[in-house]
Write a structure and sequence with these properties.
HDOD; mainly alpha; 13 helices; RNase_Y/CdgJ; 0% strand
Amino acid sequence: MTDLEHQVFTQVRAIISNEEQVIGRRGILIPLKKAIIADGDIRNVIDIVSSDPALAAHMLWRSNSAMNADANRSKNRSLKDALVRLGQVNIYRYAFTFYLKERLDELPQPYKKLVQGYWALTENIASNAVDSLHQMLGVDINPDEVQTLALFSVFGEIIALTAFAYLNAESEESFPLSIIKSLIDNQKQTLTIEAFDSLGLDEELQEEFMIAHNLRQTSNPNSPGLVLRRVLSMRNQLLNPL
């Protein structure tokens, strides 16, 4: 690593550790996390999600997209039905990715275009993973757990590029894109793990992410990570290739 790359690497990691700067809209996520941690009445969670109509619509869409290929289930027609079925952990994961995407849309060019490419890849991986799950027999895996996990498939790349955009916006000198490309290529695993640690995501998501990227093994045949690993392997996206 060159001196300049090391400088940028250090500064990018510092930005990644700032949850509010990376995610932005905390008005919903903070009380939502508190309500989930308290493990209280689901009505409190419903009220929080309902306070943002865009998030509520997104939740309903996500829930139905995960169930789409399951002929044995009817679509959720109300937010309450969707949230009750999702479970509180998946609710938070969906909300987190919703506000992350909102934040990404605010980035200046050329970072917005680049990160949107990563996001399109993420959505495609999520769709493939859910489709793959519905084709499997003899497993008992929640499709929303597969979908929420898959939405973090290239999480490290997205967060690193976002942090680099903020760094260049705040710095007196402009660092070339080739530096962050080199860091993503060579420090992807470190950046990804630090992003998970800094941004307060649940331990189960982190565990299944490690399984999905072949960084950890499991004997659980109902692991969402194993479903995602197959898709990531076919796309050459594994942090630790098979």
